[in-house]
Amino acid sequence: MQAITNEQLIKRNARLAKYIYPVGLLVLASGLLVSFRRPDLLIIPYSTLIIGFLLSNFAVSLTNRYVSRPDRPRPDSALSDALKGLDDRYRLYSFILPATYTLVCPAGVYVIIPKFQGGSLTWDKSRNRFRHRGGSIFRNLFGQEWLGSPLIEAESEARKLTRFLEKEFGGAAPPVKSVIVFTNPKIDIQGLNGVPIPTIKAKRLNAFLRKQPKGETLSPEQIERIDQVI
Question: For residue 230, is pLDDT > 80?
Answer without folding.
Answer: no
